[in-house]
Specification:
Blueprint: H1 3-9, H2 15-31, H3 33-45, H4 51-63, H5 70-83, H6 86-100, H7 105-122, H8 131-140, H9 145-165, H10 174-187, H11 194-207, H12 212-216, H13 218-231, H14 237-253, H15 262-275, H16 279-307, H17 310-313, H18 327-330, H19 332-342, H20 357-372, H21 377-387, H22 393-406, H23 412-429, H24 435-451, H25 461-472, H26 477-490, H27 493-498, H28 513-523, H29 534-548, H30 554-572, H31 580-604, H32 612-625, H33 629-646, H34 654-666, H35 671-688, H36 696-708, H37 717-731, H38 736-752, H39 761-787, H40 797-812, H41 818-834, H42 837-843, H43 848-852, H44 862-880
């Protein structure tokens, strides 16, 4: 079959044409990989072929060697390294280098992708000798700018892929790094055409992460910074943008090296921002965003060291926090006025997902405030005071945005006067003639209640709520959504704790509760509810109001809110003949209704019982009608909340609910749904206790199936392991029939935590989570069996040896977090209390590893200390005996 036509056929919309072509390519990839890749490389390099066919060949070639999914990518790269023979590899690489020199820009660009893919695989392994020599020659010595662009693109792809695939501690050999940088610096020269400079600047951006040794050398660093700064003056907007992007990357990776260049970078970025709304200006702002991020982290490090005394008492050679140069603070007088000026460049009729200079300025101002905290106030107060009531709506909105943007930084004490002075204008702004002023006023009020509610006197709440009720009904969905955000924060538990209540049965929300809930539930029904996330914002605000409501609001929740929610959920099942978009919106609505029903259930406690039958009927209907993940997730949580409140009374629903529970547990493809379904098993265990036992066999069977299935996400499995403990704790001795298989699987899981890469933060977090779950399972089993005096079943070497190995590994692991240590100490105490002398020799309660668990006890919370004290007492009694 002609490879060109096969590739074209594989893109056909006609399945009768597409399917045979795809089958042919798939079979060739499985059985004749080397020949397939060779044919593809010849097709890509053949100058007599059509451009489209050459591109398809190159992309197919690339995609046989790499993929987006990490596991698939590793498999394909290993296949390239081990399956394709050296001679064929040599021919393929020769062909793609030939294609890289094509006079056809698209063929050359496609060849660049293939060169980048293979180069990133082979260069770290010391393979493909001569690649970088060839690429450097193309850039420096060829007279063809099309070839220069393709070659620099290839270097960019190599650098980009290397960043993805290289692990901690891995480095590109210095010789290769030097050659890459030499080619890039030559390509970015000011006398090169714009397309060449753009490709070089892109490659430079991608290479900065692994040229650290070059950046450590002053001369080479100066050269790199010089070519970047020169590129910011390029008249081509694309090159200019990419050069400023490089500056932002340098700020992130090499903050400690910026000092000799900061004056120049200051001038370049501020000049670019002043020039207007070019794409480069966004990247110039991003430079300051990056500086803010870096300095916030460094200042936090310094504060932590000072708090723990590490700065004064560190041992010789111990590394302290990084040095902060306070670039942002030193630039406030010039930077802040520029950012507030940007706030006046609003774009009317923009949507929430758009991005413009005013929004970029507000984001940067917020980060500046977070960095310098109270120090920003003198540079912003005058702008706000002068403009918040100006006749020009742009100035009113900009002043309000400036105020809202800085609220993340200063303390409430420093902001007290400013908040008090601005509050009347924010309330007034909710009824402004311009929708953008109303929108920003509502958002700013929300930020005030989120961060500085203590600055708002209780006696002013009435006028604030009245204005918010008006804003909730605003015809603009964006304004109404921001008002929902403000109500949500007004009703948060943080605020509730600070505003005094007249009696235990009421609180500050009670006078406003009926009006706010009624209005929000009306807003949730608006036909424009899908705009600006309005419907979700309304239900989230209702949830917060219900959560924080005082007891005197429970009657309204029970008699009005819950019946209305049930009616709305019932109505969703009566809609038919919907488009896919309408179905998605319907499922989202069902998800929101289930979530609010869950919140009401938690609030009403056992008073939810009169609605339980109808609620379960509708929740089961959600499961029955479709498999939409978010709706099922919320429905499962609502079932769990109902079981928690009804306790044994939930048993009557199990015959109808169980099949949907099992389906959720099997639905490991939607890991969030599966995790929530596992959580429901825990809720049912606590609610039904021993009455759950008849339903446990299929539950445990599915648990074991998921644990053994390599396709199940690693995020799911810890939840399953912990749930064994929930079940065992509640069904007691009846867990005996699951004991052997459970203890075996726990032992296997424990062994998987013994060796891991502690340099990867995600892996450390995962191992701690997994260990917590294993310990929870062991603890539940010990306590559950002990309730029926069956703990002796655990006294078997096959059970105890992996358990002890886990406990010892945890005690010796410096990365074990407090949650793991707390559970370990508690389990040791339970073993000593419930099994005592029967396991003393196996566990070795007096061994050093047990004592090692207590070494950092002063750093832990009170609960951990109490558990440690309990365990000490248990072990001391054993020693005395």
């Amino acid at each position: 079959m002609d490879i060109t036509q096969t590739l074209i056929n594989a893109q056909s919309p006609d399945p009768n044409v597409r399917n045979p072509a795809e089958a042919f390519l798939r079979l060739a990839e499985e059985d004749q990989l080397s020949q397939l890749l060779l044919h593809l490389s010849f097709e890509l390099a053949n100058e007599t072929k059509q451009e489209g066919g050459r591109q398809l060949a190159g992309l197919y070639l690339k995609n046989t060697i790499t993929a987006k999914d990490p596991q698939v990518r590793d498999h394909k790269r290993q296949r390239w390294l081990t399956t394709v023979d050296a001679n064929t590899k040599g021919q393929i690489k020769s062909m793609i280098l030939q294609a890289l020199q094509s006079g056809n820009p698209r063929a050359g660009a496609t060849a660049a992708q293939v060169v980048g893919t293979i180069g990133a695989v082979e260069l770290p392994l010391g393979q493909w000798d001569g690649l970088l020599d060839a690429l450097l020659h193309n850039v420096v010595h060829t007279g063809n700018d099309v070839v220069r662009v393709s070659t620099l693109q290839a270097l960019g792809y190599i650098c980009e892929d290397l960043q993805i695939q290289m692990g901690p501690g891995q480095e590109v050999p210095q010789k290769e790094t030097d050659m890459i940088l030499t080619a890039i610096v030559d390509g970015i020269r000011s006398d090169r055409p714009a397309d060449v400079r753009l490709a070089a600047a892109t490659a430079l951006c991608n290479s900065l992460d692994f040229c650290r040794r070059n950046m450590e050398k002053e001369g080479e660093r100066n050269m790199i910074m010089q070519v970047i700064c020169e590129a910011t003056q390029c008249e081509d907007a694309r090159v200019k943008k990419k050069a400023f992007e490089c500056i932002a990357v340098v700020a992130s990776l090499y903050y400690d090296k910026l000092q000799p260049y900061i004056t120049t970078l200051f001038e370049l970025t501020l000049t670019c921002i002043k020039e207007g709304s070019s794409e480069a200006a966004f990247q110039a702002i991003e430079f300051w965003n990056t500086l803010c991020d870096e300095e916030v982290d460094i200042i936090r490090e310094i504060q932590e060291y000072q708090e723990y005394g590490a700065l004064e008492t560190r041992a010789p050679g111990e590394q302290g926090p990084r040095q902060c140069f306070y670039y942002v603070q030193n630039a406030l007088a010039h930077l802040v006025p520029l950012l507030t000026e940007l706030l006046t460049k609003q774009e009317e009729h923009h949507d929430d997902d758009s991005w413009n200079m005013a929004m970029a300025g507000g984001t940067c101002l917020s980060l500046v405030a977070l960095t310098v905290e109270d120090k920003i106030l003198p540079y912003v107060v005058q702008f706000v005071v002068s403009n918040i009531s100006d006749a020009n709506w742009r100035l009113r909105e900009a002043a309000t945005m400036a105020f809202g943007s800085i609220l993340d930084g200063p303390s409430s004490g420093a902001l007290q006067q400013m908040v008090s002075g601005a509050l009347p204008y924010l309330v007034q702004g909710l009824q402004d003639a311009h929708p953008m002023v109303k929108d920003t006023s509502a958002w700013t009020l929300g930020k005030v209640f989120e961060l500085h509610w203590r600055c708002v006197p209780l006696e002013h709440l009435g006028e604030v709520v009245k204005a918010l009720l008006h804003a909730l009904g605003d015809p603009a969905a964006s304004v109404s959504s921001k008002a929902c955000f403000a109500v949500y924060n007004l009703a948060s538990d943080r605020v509730a704790e600070d505003y005094p209540a007249a009696s235990p049965t009421t609180n500050y929300l009670s006078p406003f509760f009926p009006h706010l809930v009624e209005k929000l539930l009306g807003v949730a029904e608006r036909p424009d509810g899908s705009e600006s996330n309005l419907r979700a914002a309304a239900y989230e605000a209702v949830n917060m109001l219900v959560t924080s409501a005082a007891p005197d609001c429970n009657e309204l929740i029970g008699q009005q809110v819950v019946p209305l929610l049930l009616m709305r959920l019932q109505q969703t099942f009566q809609m038919s003949d919907l488009t896919l978009e309408a179905k998605e919106e319907l499922w989202g609505l069902q998800s929101l209704l289930c979530g609010t029903l869950m919140t009401c259930t938690q609030k009403l406690d056992q008073n939810i019982a009169p609605y339980a039958d109808k609620m379960m009927e509708l929740l089961i209907e959600v499961f029955r009608r479709h498999r939409h993940a978010s709706a099922h997730e919320e429905a499962f949580m609502a079932v769990g909340a109902l079981a928690d409140k009804l306790e044994g009374g939930f048993l009557k629903y199990m015959p109808h609910f169980q099949e949907y529970l099992y389906a959720g547990l099997r639905n490991y493809e939607d890991s969030a749904v599966c995790i929530v379904a596992v959580g429901v098993v825990g809720d049912l265990s606590r609610a039904l206790e021993r009455k759950l036992a008849p339903f446990c066999d299929p539950i445990v069977e599915i648990f074991l199936m998921n644990l053994r299935n390599v396709d199940v996400s690693r995020e799911v499995k810890p939840h399953i392991l912990a749930c064994f403990g929930d079940i065992a704790l509640q069904i007691g001795g009846e867990f005996e029939r699951f004991l052997h298989v459970t203890m075996t699987i726990l032992g296997q899981a424990a062994m998987t935590t013994s060796n891991y890469n502690a340099e990867e933060e995600d892996m450390v977090e995962h191992i701690n989570h997994l260990r917590e779950s294993i310990l929870d399972a062991y603890t539940g089993i010990v306590q559950g069996l002990s309730a029926d005096n069956k703990q002796g079943l655990l006294v078997q070497p096959a059970y105890l040896q992996p358990l002890v190995a886990l406990l010892m590994a945890i005690s010796e692991d410096p990365h074990s977090d407090e949650g793991v240590i707390k559970r370990t100490i508690g389990l040791v105490g339970d073993l000593g209390s419930k099994l005592g002398d029967k396991v003393a020799s196996a566990i070795g309660f007096n061994n050093l590893w047990v004592q090692h668990l207590y070494k950092d006890m002063d750093e832990y919370g009170e609960e951990t200390k109490k558990i440690a004290a309990y365990t000490r007492q248990v072990l001391e009694r054993l020693v005395v005996r």
